[in-house]
Hints:
The protein starts with a helix and ends with a helix. α2 packs antiparallel against α10 and α3 packs antiparallel against α12. Helix content is about 80%, strand content about 0%. The chain has about 450 residues and is mainly alpha-helical. The chain is globular and about 60 Å long. It contains 19 helices and no strands. The structure holds tryptophan (TRP). Tryptophan binds near residues 18, 220 and 319. Tryptophan binds near residues 16, 18, 19, 220 and 227.
Amino acid sequence: MWGSKIGFIMAAAGSAVGLGNIWGFPTQVGQGGGAVFVLIYLVCVFFVCAPIFISELILGRGSKKGPVGAFESFAPQSAWWIVGALCVLCGVGILSFYAVIAGWTLAYIYFTAAGTLGGNAQEVAAAFGAFTANGAANLGLTAVFLAVTAGCILGGVRAGIERVTKTLMPLLIGLLLVLAVRAITLPGASEGLRYYLRPDFSRLTDFNVLTAALGQAFFSLSLGMGALITYGSYMRKQDNLAVSALWVVLLDTAIALLAGFIIFPTGFSIEGFDPSSSGPGLIFQVLPQLFATLPGGALFGAAFFILLAMAALTSTISLLEVPVSHCIDEYRWPRKKAVWLLTAGTFLLSIPSALGNGAVGRLSSMPAALGGNFLGFMALVWNQYALPIGGLLISIFVAYRLGLPKAIQEITAEGAQFPYTNLWGFLIRFVSPVAIAIIIISSFL
Ligand code: TRP
C-alpha cells in the first residue's frame, strides 16, 4: 500500500515521467512535423488517454490485483485474462529496448562530466555514433541498468520508490526549468520556438502522425499495459482516484512540453540543425552542445544525465514490477526468483536492440517504415500498436463489461468527489475506443 495520496501520485508520476518525456517526446515532435504533432498529442492525452488512465486505476484498486488477476476477478471464466497476459508480455517487450537507451544516459553522465564529447555539432554527433556502435559497451550498460532495476524491486519497491521519487521529481523539474530558461535565451532560439509552437496544418491528416502521437501519449503515461492496474492495486480506498489520475497526467504532460522548450531552441541555435532527421540521438547530440555554452556546463550536463537516469529508473521499475508481481501472484514464485528470471529473460531480448545502433549492420539498418533499426522496430511494435490496442481493450472492458455504474462506484468510493464523472463515462464509452480503433485501422490501410 502507498503511504499517502501524494505517495501514489509521485510513484505513478515516477513511472510516467521518463525517457518518453525527455527523449521520446521531442524526437517524435521532430519527426512528426513540429507544433501540429504537439497539438494532436494534447488532444490524445486529455480526450483519449486520461479516461483510460482512470479506468486502469479502477481495475487495479477494485480488484487489488495485477492485470491478469484484475480481469479474472471482474470477468471470471472468460477469455479476458488473455488481455492481462498480453499486458505482462508488453512490459517485458518495452523494458527490453528502454533499458538500452537508459544505458546511454549512464554513459553520458561520464561523457559530459569528463568533457570528452567535443564542442561542435560534428564532434558531438560523431561521438554519439561511435558510442552507440560499440556493442560491448551497449550490452554492458544495458545489463547494468537492468540489474539496478532488479535490485530496487528486490528490496520491496513501495517504501523505497515512494521516498526516492518524492525527492527526485522536484529536483528534475527544477533543473529542467533552469535549462529551459538558458535554451530560450540562446541566439537563434526564436526559430526553434516557432517550429515548436506554430502548427503546419497540412500534416493534420497524415495518419502516420496520428498513430505516432497516440502511441507516444500511451507510452508517456505508462498506459495500456497494466502498469497502472498494478500501481492502482496498491492504492488506498480513501484517496481520490480520479483526481490523483489527473494530477499524474498533468505532471507528465507538463514535463514533456518543458523538454521541448529545451531541445528545439537549442537545436535551432545550432547551424544546419534538421529536427526531422535527428532521430533517436536528438537529446544525446543536441544537449551536450547546450551544456558547452553554460558556465560549469560539465557539472550541469552530468547533473542532467544523472536525473535522466533516475527518471528512467523509476520507469523501468514499473515496467519490471508488472511481470514480477504477475509471476508471484499466479505461479507463487518467490520474489527473488521472479525478479532474476525475468531480468535475465529481458536482457536476452534486449541484445538485438543494444546491437542495432551501428554494432551489427543487419540490425542497424532496416526500412524506415519498420522503424529504421531494431530498436526503432521494437518501439514501433510496442508503443504504436501494442499499447493503444491494450488501451482499447481496457476501455471496452470497463465501459461495457464491468459497466459504468460499478466503475463510478469505485471512482466515488468513500465519498470521493469528482465533478467530471459524466464526461468520463461519455469519453470512455464513445471517444476513447472509437478514436483508437479508427487510428489503428487507418494506419494499416
Ligand atoms: N512512461 C515511461 C516514459 O515515459 C515509460 C514507461 C514506464 C512505460 N512504464 C511503462 C510505458 C508502462 C508504457 C507502459 O518514459
